[in-house]
Design goal:
This protein is mostly helical. Helix 5 (92-105) crosses helix 10 (187-211). The protein has one domain (2-333). A hairpin with a 4-residue loop joins strand 4 and strand 5. Helices cover 66% and strands 4% of the residues. The relative contact order is 0.13. The chain contains 18 helices and 5 strands.
Length: 366
C-alpha cells in the first residue's frame, strides 16, 4: 500500500540511533498478543452479559456497568489499531483477519481505517496537509478570516459537548457506513466499508434476536455512546495540547512531529492498561510497528523518550479550551486569545493607516 510504504520511508529518515533503538522493540510475541486479545474480548463479553442481566433489576445498575464495558470497547479498538499497523502479529493475514472482526465490534471498516490512519501518521503536524484522520484544527489567521456563520460552525465543532458527544457517535455509527468521501481508486477500502456494514448487520440482528431487540438497544446504546466519546477523547489529547507541533510543509519534520506533536499521556496504571499503552503516543508515532505491549519497555530503556512533555489526566482536562494554532506564538490557544490577537492586529493596521496621511502631509510641506 502506498501510504504504508510512505510511512516506512518516513521512519527511515529518523536518526540512525533512534532507528536502532526502535527496531529492538518491533518484534511481536504471538502468545502475548493472543493473551491480550482474549484478556480484552472475554471481559467485554462478560460485562455486556452482566449489563443484560442487570436489566431485570435496575437500569441505573446497567448504566454503571456501561462504563467499564465501554472501556474494554476502547481497548478492542486499540488492538484493532495495532492490527492495522501490522504490529500485533507477524502474519499480515492474521492481523487483517483479527482487525476486521474487531472492526465490526467497534463499528469501523478495517481496511478503510488502516489507509486513512496511515495518512494521518504520514502528515501529522503538517499545516499544509491537514484533513487525514485528524481533529480539524484551524490557525488563528484562518479563523479570523472566516465569515461569522463559518466561525459559529467551527466553534460548534470544537465544543466539547458536540465533539465528544454527538459528533463522536455520528462519526463511528453513521459516517463510517458510507463511501462518498472515499476516492474511487480506493477499491479495497470501499469494499471494506460494505463488508463491514454487512457483517455488522448480521451481528446486530443475531444478538438482537438472541437477547431481544429492546434489551439489546438498552445495553449497547450507552456502551457505544460512551465508547465513542472516550475514543475521540483519546485521539484528541494525543495531538491537541498547548506545546504541540505544527509546521508548514517546507519546515515539517517527521521526527519532531512524533516527539513534540504527539503526547506522552501519563495515565494511572489501570487506565494505562485499559488503553493498551496508547499514552506513549510519541513513541508510537516514531515507529508504529512496535506492539502496544512493548511501548512501556521502550520508554523505560530509552532516556531520550522520557525527556518529553508529560500530560497527566488532570492536566489534560484543560486542553479542552485549546481550539486554534497560533503560528506567531507556536502554540495552541483558545478563542478568547484569538479574539484579542485579532483586535491587536486590527489596532496595528489602523495605526499604520492613520500614520500614512501624516507622513504624506509632511512630505507635501517639504
Amino acid at each position: 500500500m502506498t501510504e504504508r510504504s510512505n510511512l516506512c520511508s518516513l521512519t527511515a529518515t529518523l536518526p540512525v540511533g533512534h532507528r536502532a533503538v526502535l527496531a529492538r522493540y518491533r518484534e511481536p510475541d504471538f502468545g502475548r498478543s493472543v493473551r491480550q486479545l482474549l484478556g480484552s474480548i472475554v471481559p467485554f463479553c462478560a460485562l455486556w452479559a452482566l449489563m443484560w442481566l442487570s436489566l431485570q433489576y435496575s437500569y441505573w445498575l446497567t448504566l454503571m456497568l456501561s462504563v467499564p464495558t465501554a472501556g474494554f470497547l476502547v481497548r478492542l479498538f486499540i488492538l484493532q489499531h495495532d492490527c492495522g499497523h501490522g504490529s500485533f502479529f507477524k502474519s499480515k493475514r492474521l492481523n487483517d483477519a483479527v482487525g476486521f472482526v474487531l472492526g465490526v465490534l467497534v463499528f469501523t471498516p478495517y481496511h478503510c481505517w488502516c489507509r486513512q490512519h496511515a495518512l494521518h501518521h504520514a502528515t501529522s503536524g503538517d499545516l499544509d496537509r491537514r484533513g487525514f484522520g485528524d481533529i480539524a484544527t484551524m490557525t488563528v489567521k484562518e479563523y479570523l478570516q472566516l465569515t461569522p456563520l463559518k466561525k459559529l460552525g467551527y466553534r460548534l465543532y470544537r465544543n466539547p459537548v458536540v465533539m465528544f458527544g454527538a459528533a463522536a457517535v455520528v462519526y463511528f455509527v453513521v459516517l463510517q457506513r458510507f463511501t462518498y468521501e472515499l476516492p474511487r481508486s480506493w477499491t479495497r477500502e470501499r469494499a471494506s466499508v460494505h463488508a463491514t456494514n454487512l457483517a455488522l448487520l448480521v451481528f446486530l440482528l443475531s444478538v438482537g434476536w438472541l437477547v431481544g431487540f429492546r434489551s439489546f438497544l438498552l445495553v449497547h446504546v450507552p456502551v457505544t455512546v460512551l465508547g465513542s466519546s472516550l475514543g475521540v477523547w483519546m485521539f484528541y489529547i494525543q495531538h491537541n495540547f498547548a506545546g504541540t507541533y505544527w509546521q508548514r510543509h517546507d519546515n515539517w519534520q517527521f521526527e519532531l512531529a512524533g516527539m513534540e506533536g504527539s503526547s506522552y499521556y501519563q495515565l494511572p496504571k489501570p487506565l494505562q492498561w485499559l488503553t493498551a499503552n496508547i499514552g506513549f503516543h510519541h513513541i508510537h508515532h516514531l515507529d508504529s510497528r512496535i506492539p502496544n505491549y512493548r511501548l512501556q519497555e521502550c520508554f523505560d530503556r530509552t532516556p531520550e523518550f522520557q525527556q518529553v512533555h508529560r500530560i497527566t489526566f488532570w492536566q489534560s482536562l484543560s486542553c479542552v479550551s485549546l481550539k486554534l494554532w497560533d503560528e506567531n506564538e507556536g502554540r495552541m490557544v483558545g478563542f478568547p486569545t484569538a479574539a484579542s490577537s485579532g483586535a491587536r492586529r486590527n489596532g496595528l493596521a489602523l495605526q499604520r493607516s492613520s500614520q500614512r496621511p501624516m507622513r504624506q502631509r509632511r512630505t507635501d510641506r517639504c
